[in-house]
């Protein structure tokens, strides 16, 4: 029987960029949450040879080659754990790719959880955390897949309690490559910006927050501005913002019914977009 894990989409409720480091990465401060029903599915068959098959609506852009983050994460863990038992992975790809939803990172984290289960490793085993950080900046926060404050390059993860938050996610199905968006932000190496301590109240943290990558991402994918306008003008959402490096935008609502109603209206108004209503936690 294969082992199974869900790999839920990540949403950056806030994303503040605090500076560009000399190693080319940016220091971030982000309140991050996870979608209840926008997720990839990953299985691991211990008896099968090491490898990966991919199916689902976004199988092609994700690819099943060596650069898939599932295999990259598995190799990063195998390099740290002598005699690590592996197996055959099968991924069903339902999260749009290069969308600011951390789909590849969620898959990498799910692969690490499956390997931890197979090999009897604890969730807080430092080798698991190191392998996650090597696989990508967003992978550490995806290991737990519950709301957290993410700082540093992404590797410093502090759990945050948030009330389950009804949301609509919408993506124009145009990729917004993360590195390109950070480049478009145009910070010089070593340049820093002041960061504020977030308010204790999570609702205020979200309401007063922002996504510093929004303007840079709009220059690369102008549809983002149209999505934000649709959310703000047509749905009555409390907050409309971009997730990660885009191009996914999200609206936050007072109730799941309002979110579902808005998702139906948006899917009709923008039939070429991927639209989902979900709870963020
Ligand atoms: C922006 C965020 C916010 O959660 O999300 P996405 O838009 O990818 O979902 C993440 O920081 C993305 O994390 P991840 O997608 O894992 O990025 P990585 O593979 O580590 O890095 C890809 C590239 O993005 C840039 N990068 C990434 C993270 C970071 N803190 N600073 C950066 O400058 C670098 O140019 C790097 O080469
Ligand atoms: N399992 C995977 N799912 C999606 N993309 C993947 C995966 N493995 C590698 N990639 C590559 O990683 C890049 C970022 O993908 P993704 O995680 O979807 O971006 P984002 O974090 O912006 O949503 C893409 O260029 C894609 O080709």
List keywords for this structure.
281 residues, alpha+beta, Ribosomal Protein S5, domain 2, Alpha-Beta Plaits, 2 domains, seven-stranded mixed β-sheet, four-stranded antiparallel β-sheet, 10 helices, globular, binds 4-diphosphocytidyl-2-C-methyl-D-erythritol 2-phosphate, binds adenosine-5'-diphosphate
Question: What is this entry, summarized?
Answer:
Pathway: Isoprenoid biosynthesis; isopentenyl diphosphate biosynthesis via DXP pathway; isopentenyl diphosphate from 1-deoxy-D-xylulose 5-phosphate: step 3/6. Its EC number is 2.7.1.148. The protein has 281 residues and is of the alpha+beta class.
Give a topology summary.
Blueprint: E1 3-12, E2 16-20, E3 26-45, E4 51-55, H1 59-62, H2 69-78, E5 88-92, H3 103-119, H4 126-135, H5 139-144, E6 148-152, E7 156-159, E8 165-171, H6 178-185, H7 202-208, H8 214-220, H9 223-234, E9 239-242, E10 249-252, H10 256-269, E11 274-280
Parallel strand pairs: 4-5
Antiparallel strand pairs: 1-3, 2-3, 3-5, 3-6, 6-7, 8-10, 8-11, 9-10
Helix pairs in contact: 2-3, 2-4, 3-4, 6-8
Bound molecules: 4-diphosphocytidyl-2-C-methyl-D-erythritol 2-phosphate and adenosine-5'-diphosphate.
4-diphosphocytidyl-2-C-methyl-D-erythritol 2-phosphate (SUD) is lined by residues 12, 15, 24-26, 28, 30, 100, 102, 105, 136-138, 153-154, 178-179, 182, 244-245.
């Amino acid at each position: 029987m294969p082992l199974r894990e869900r790999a839920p989409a990540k949403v950056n409720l806030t994303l503040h960029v605090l500076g560009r480091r000399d190693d080319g990465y940016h220091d971030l401060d982000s309140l991050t949450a996870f979608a209840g029903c926008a997720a990839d599915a990953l299985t691991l068959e211990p008896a099968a040879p090491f490898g990966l098959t991919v199916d689902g609506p976004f199988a092609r852009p994700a690819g099943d080659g060596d650069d898939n983050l599932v295999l990259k994460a598995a190799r990063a863990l195998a390099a740290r754990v002598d005699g690590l038992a592996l197996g055959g992975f099968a991924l069903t790809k339902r999260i749009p790719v290069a969308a600011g939803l951390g789909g590849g990172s969620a898959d990498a984290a799910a692969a690490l959880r499956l390997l931890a289960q197979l090999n009897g490793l604890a969730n807080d085993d430092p080798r698991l955390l190191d392998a996650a950080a090597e696989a990508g900046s967003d992978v550490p926060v995806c290991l737990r897949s519950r709301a957290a404050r993410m700082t540093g390059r992404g590797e410093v993860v502090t759990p945050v309690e948030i009330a389950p938050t009804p949301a609509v996610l919408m993506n124009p199905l145009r990729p917004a490559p993360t590195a390109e968006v950070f480049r478009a932000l145009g910070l010089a190496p070593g340049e820093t910006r002041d960061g504020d301590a977030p308010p204790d109240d999570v609702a205020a943290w979200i309401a007063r927050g922002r996504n510093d990558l929004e303007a840079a991402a709009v220059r690369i994918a102008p549809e983002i501005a149209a999505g934000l306008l649709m959310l703000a003008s047509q749905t009555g959402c409390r907050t409309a913002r971009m997730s990660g490096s885009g191009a996914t935008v999200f609206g936050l609502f007072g109730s799941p019914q309002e979110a579902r109603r808005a998702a139906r209206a948006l899917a009709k108004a923008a039939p070429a977009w991927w639209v989902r209503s979900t709870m963020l936690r």
